[in-house]
Amino acid sequence: MSDSKLDVFDERLESLEKRVFGDFDKDADYPKVLDSLCSINTQINSATAGRPQIEAVFKRLGELDEYLDTDAVDHLTVSLSANMDLILAAVPSLQTQLYELSTVHIQQQDQLAELSGEATTLLDKYNSIISLLSKQFAHWDAIITDMELAKQQKAA
């Protein structure tokens, strides 16, 4: 830079310092920013030394800043019209899938009705057989009881 530009810059800096600090002695009343930053950096480094998890987080701070930047969020999000286009593009394939699923559902309902009818018929047959067996066992029990009674009466 040329000396004139440097002088202009220096004057602007002094004007800014005058506005911020007023009549105070900025060097005496306010610590040097660079010295403070170096001191804080040293303290942070000594506190995090030997802690790999914290070091890993520090390494990813740039990535976090990217995600927190509003411009990046706007870039990552999809506009409403783009969302509508995506949804409208998916409608034909979804309609085809819906038709196929409806067909399968109707077939399964028909199979269910058929199987329910078969199960009802089998249960009716089972109940009839059990009922007949129960009646037969009761009849045989009555016959055996009569025979035992007759045998006891002959023996007496």
Please characterize this protein's 3D structure.
This protein is mostly helical. Helix content is 88%, strand content 0%. The protein is built from seven helices and no strands. It has helices spanning 3-21, 26-29, 33-48, 52-59, 61-68, 70-76, 80-155. The longest helix is centred in the C-terminal third of the chain and has 76 residues, at 80-155. The radius of gyration is 47 Å and the shape is elongated. It starts with a helix and ends with a helix.
Give, in order, the helices and strands.
HHHHHHH
What's the N-to-C terminus distance? 143 Å
Unreliable spans are: none
Q: Output the radius of gyration.
A: 47 Å
Overall 3D form: elongated
Question: What average pLDDT do the residues reach?
Answer: 86
Strand content: under 5%
Structural class: mainly alpha
- The helix tally amounts to 7
Helix content: over 70%
Total number of beta strands: 0
Quick gist of this model?
This protein is mostly helical.
List keywords for this structure.
156 residues, 7 helices
Q: Which secondary structure elements does this structure contain, and how are they paired or packed?
A:
Elements (H helix, E strand, L loop, with lengths): L2 H19 L4 H4 L3 H16 L3 H8 L1 H8 L1 H7 L3 H76 L1
